[in-house]
Design a protein that fits this description.
Number of helices: 6
Distance between the termini: 13 Å
Largest sheet: 4 strands, mixed
CATH class: Alpha Beta
Strand order of the largest sheet: 4-1-5-6
Radius of gyration: 15 Å
Structural class: alpha+beta
Shape: globular
Number of domains: 1
CATH superfamily: D-3-phosphoglycerate dehydrogenase, domain 3
Order of helices and strands: HHEHHHEEHEEE
CATH architecture: 2-Layer Sandwich
Length: about 150
Protein backbone atom coordinates (compact mmCIF):
# COMPACT_ATOMS: atom_id res chain seq x y z
CA UNK A 1 0.00 0.00 0.00
CA UNK A 2 1.48 3.33 -1.06
CA UNK A 3 1.11 6.16 1.44
CA UNK A 4 1.64 9.79 0.52
CA UNK A 5 2.44 12.74 2.75
CA UNK A 6 -1.21 13.81 2.28
CA UNK A 7 -2.31 10.56 3.93
CA UNK A 8 -0.12 11.26 6.93
CA UNK A 9 -1.44 14.76 7.60
CA UNK A 10 -5.23 14.74 7.88
CA UNK A 11 -7.62 17.58 8.56
CA UNK A 12 -10.30 16.66 11.05
CA UNK A 13 -12.78 18.11 13.52
CA UNK A 14 -10.82 17.14 16.62
CA UNK A 15 -7.30 17.04 18.03
CA UNK A 16 -6.56 13.44 16.99
CA UNK A 17 -7.05 11.80 13.60
CA UNK A 18 -7.20 8.41 15.34
CA UNK A 19 -10.12 9.65 17.41
CA UNK A 20 -12.03 11.67 14.79
CA UNK A 21 -10.98 11.05 11.19
CA UNK A 22 -10.84 7.25 11.55
CA UNK A 23 -14.13 6.95 13.45
CA UNK A 24 -15.92 9.25 10.98
CA UNK A 25 -14.67 7.12 8.10
CA UNK A 26 -15.65 3.90 9.90
CA UNK A 27 -19.19 5.17 10.55
CA UNK A 28 -19.63 6.15 6.91
CA UNK A 29 -18.17 2.81 5.77
CA UNK A 30 -20.73 0.97 7.90
CA UNK A 31 -23.65 2.88 6.39
CA UNK A 32 -22.27 2.36 2.88
CA UNK A 33 -21.96 -1.36 3.57
CA UNK A 34 -25.61 -1.48 4.63
CA UNK A 35 -26.52 0.33 1.40
CA UNK A 36 -24.47 -2.05 -0.80
CA UNK A 37 -26.00 -5.10 0.86
CA UNK A 38 -29.55 -3.78 0.41
CA UNK A 39 -30.16 -3.56 4.17
CA UNK A 40 -30.23 0.20 4.70
CA UNK A 41 -33.94 0.74 3.97
CA UNK A 42 -34.86 -1.77 6.70
CA UNK A 43 -32.78 -0.11 9.44
CA UNK A 44 -34.78 1.18 12.41
CA UNK A 45 -31.95 1.55 14.92
CA UNK A 46 -28.20 2.12 14.82
CA UNK A 47 -25.86 1.66 17.74
CA UNK A 48 -22.19 2.55 18.09
CA UNK A 49 -20.00 1.12 20.84
CA UNK A 50 -16.63 2.76 21.43
CA UNK A 51 -13.95 0.73 23.20
CA UNK A 52 -10.69 1.38 25.00
CA UNK A 53 -8.94 4.59 24.12
CA UNK A 54 -11.83 5.82 21.97
CA UNK A 55 -14.22 5.38 24.89
CA UNK A 56 -11.89 6.89 27.48
CA UNK A 57 -11.21 10.12 25.60
CA UNK A 58 -14.11 10.05 23.14
CA UNK A 59 -16.05 13.05 24.42
CA UNK A 60 -12.99 15.22 24.93
CA UNK A 61 -11.47 14.37 21.55
CA UNK A 62 -14.74 14.60 19.61
CA UNK A 63 -15.05 10.91 18.70
CA UNK A 64 -18.77 10.98 19.49
CA UNK A 65 -19.31 13.94 17.17
CA UNK A 66 -17.22 12.41 14.40
CA UNK A 67 -19.14 9.12 14.51
CA UNK A 68 -22.53 10.85 14.35
CA UNK A 69 -21.46 12.95 11.38
CA UNK A 70 -20.05 9.87 9.66
CA UNK A 71 -23.35 8.03 10.10
CA UNK A 72 -25.00 10.99 8.40
CA UNK A 73 -22.65 10.59 5.44
CA UNK A 74 -19.94 13.14 6.17
CA UNK A 75 -16.31 12.65 5.29
CA UNK A 76 -13.35 14.22 7.10
CA UNK A 77 -12.40 15.99 3.88
CA UNK A 78 -15.89 17.30 3.16
CA UNK A 79 -17.32 18.28 6.53
CA UNK A 80 -17.70 22.02 7.06
CA UNK A 81 -16.39 22.72 10.60
CA UNK A 82 -18.54 25.86 10.76
CA UNK A 83 -21.74 23.78 10.55
CA UNK A 84 -20.84 20.99 12.98
CA UNK A 85 -22.36 22.54 16.13
CA UNK A 86 -25.65 23.40 14.43
CA UNK A 87 -25.90 19.97 12.79
CA UNK A 88 -25.30 18.14 16.05
CA UNK A 89 -27.81 20.35 17.88
CA UNK A 90 -30.40 19.61 15.17
CA UNK A 91 -29.70 15.88 15.42
CA UNK A 92 -30.19 15.98 19.19
CA UNK A 93 -33.40 18.02 18.87
CA UNK A 94 -35.00 15.69 16.30
CA UNK A 95 -33.68 12.55 18.05
CA UNK A 96 -32.84 10.92 14.75
CA UNK A 97 -30.03 10.41 12.27
CA UNK A 98 -30.64 11.54 8.69
CA UNK A 99 -29.02 8.84 6.61
CA UNK A 100 -28.26 10.12 3.09
CA UNK A 101 -30.40 8.31 0.51
CA UNK A 102 -31.75 6.22 3.35
CA UNK A 103 -34.14 6.30 6.28
CA UNK A 104 -34.26 8.74 9.14
CA UNK A 105 -33.31 6.52 12.07
CA UNK A 106 -34.32 7.28 15.67
CA UNK A 107 -31.22 7.85 17.78
CA UNK A 108 -31.06 8.15 21.56
CA UNK A 109 -27.50 9.05 22.44
CA UNK A 110 -27.65 7.51 25.93
CA UNK A 111 -28.75 4.17 24.45
CA UNK A 112 -27.18 4.21 21.00
CA UNK A 113 -23.73 5.72 21.60
CA UNK A 114 -22.07 3.52 24.21
CA UNK A 115 -18.69 4.22 25.79
CA UNK A 116 -17.18 0.90 26.91
CA UNK A 117 -14.40 2.45 28.98
CA UNK A 118 -13.38 -0.74 30.78
CA UNK A 119 -13.29 -2.96 27.69
CA UNK A 120 -11.05 -3.24 24.67
CA UNK A 121 -11.43 -5.22 21.48
CA UNK A 122 -8.67 -7.73 20.69
CA UNK A 123 -6.93 -6.23 17.66
CA UNK A 124 -6.32 -2.59 18.70
CA UNK A 125 -7.11 -0.14 21.54
CA UNK A 126 -9.13 2.11 19.16
CA UNK A 127 -12.01 -0.28 18.48
CA UNK A 128 -15.60 0.45 17.46
CA UNK A 129 -18.58 -1.84 16.97
CA UNK A 130 -21.46 -0.69 14.77
CA UNK A 131 -24.81 -2.49 14.86
CA UNK A 132 -27.96 -1.99 12.79
CA UNK A 133 -31.38 -3.40 13.64
CA UNK A 134 -34.55 -3.73 11.58
CA UNK A 135 -38.06 -3.43 12.99
CA UNK A 136 -38.80 -6.01 15.65
CA UNK A 137 -35.49 -7.82 15.25
CA UNK A 138 -33.82 -9.17 18.36
CA UNK A 139 -30.53 -9.74 16.55
CA UNK A 140 -28.90 -7.02 14.44
CA UNK A 141 -29.26 -7.04 10.66
CA UNK A 142 -25.56 -6.22 10.54
CA UNK A 143 -22.77 -5.85 13.07
CA UNK A 144 -19.22 -4.80 12.21
CA UNK A 145 -16.06 -4.01 14.13
CA UNK A 146 -13.64 -1.36 12.89
CA UNK A 147 -10.32 -0.15 14.25
CA UNK A 148 -8.91 3.35 13.91
CA UNK A 149 -5.23 2.48 13.64
CA UNK A 150 -3.77 5.97 13.38
CA UNK A 151 -3.50 8.77 10.87
CA UNK A 152 -7.19 8.45 9.99
CA UNK A 153 -6.73 4.91 8.64
CA UNK A 154 -9.38 2.28 9.39
Amino acid sequence: MAVSVFDLFSIGIGPSSSHTVGPMRAARMFVERLRREGKLAAVTRLQVELYGSLALTGKGHGTDRAVLLGLEGETPEGVDPDTVEDRLAALEKRGALKIPKGPTVPFEEARDLVFRRRETLPAHPNGMRFSAWGGGEEEPLERRVYYSIGGGFV
